[in-house]
């Protein structure tokens, strides 16, 4: 956790943890992706510092217009994985826009469990290898981040007309709480 660089010699802010247990959503389907969410129980308590902080989870359906994604994926579709953690601001699209894009392509878009977001600027997007990364918004009143999604899949990278699909965190809060509090 807390890593920003793939070279351990340059990245002294990271901490290593082992995954003790994995909880995959019982209704997970890999393709087309549905209920694409899992939780990890780590081998020890996380030590928070300036680079490792908790994030709030969105508990209700919201209407955010813009959000930030991050990941270690490629910077273009057939490119190499990034050596540095990349961050990109994305436009969150209305459900109708997402359904109009994905349903004709024979892909499911379920507005109750999915969000779609894509590039504001051409070629500035999540890409191959970023799946599982967060979609988050900065709450101005508290200066804390709120995670609203988890990158599930997309069609290509950096295309303004083709946003990516994110698992909508708020739809899975009861499942998350059942695991965390049990």
From TrEMBL:
Presence of keyword Plastid: no
Pfam families: Trypsin
Top-level lineage group: Eukaryota
PROSITE patterns: TRYPSIN_DOM, TRYPSIN_SER
UniProt keyword list: Disulfide bond, Hydrolase, Protease
UniProt-listed InterPro entries: Peptidase_S1_PA, Peptidase_S1_PA_chymotrypsin, Peptidase_S1A, Trypsin_dom, TRYPSIN_SER
Alphabetized SUPFAM superfamilies for the sequence: Trypsin-like serine proteases
Recorded GO MF terms: serine-type endopeptidase activity
SMART domains attached to this UniProt entry: Tryp_SPc (SM00020)
Keyword Disulfide bond: yes
Domain Peptidase S1, residue spans: 1-181
GO biological process: proteolysis
Protein family membership: Belongs to the peptidase S1 family. CLIP subfamily.
Name of the featured protein: Serine protease-like protein
């Amino acid at each position: 956790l807390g890593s920003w660089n793939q070279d351990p010699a340059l990245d002294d802010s990271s901490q290593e943890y082992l995954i003790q247990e994995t909880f995959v959503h019982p209704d997970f389907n890999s393709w087309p992706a549905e209920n694409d969410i899992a939780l990890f129980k780590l081998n020890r308590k996380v030590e928070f510092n300036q680079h490792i902080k908790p994030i709030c989870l969105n508990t209700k359906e919201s209407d955010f217009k813009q959000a930030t994604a991050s990941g270690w994926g490629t910077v273009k579709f057939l490119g190499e994985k990034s050596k540095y953690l990349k961050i990109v601001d994305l436009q969150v699209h209305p459900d109708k826009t997402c359904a109009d894009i994905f349903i004709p392509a024979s892909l499911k878009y379920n507005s109750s469990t999915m969000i779609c977001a894509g590039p504001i600027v051409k070629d500035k997007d999540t890409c191959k290898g970023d799946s599982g990364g967060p979609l988050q918004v900065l709450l101005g009143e508290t200066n804390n981040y709120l995670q609203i999604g988890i990158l599930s899949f997309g069609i290509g990278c950096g295309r303004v007309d083709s946003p990516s699909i994110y698992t909508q965190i708020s739809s899975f809060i009861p499942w998350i709480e059942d695991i965390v509090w049990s």
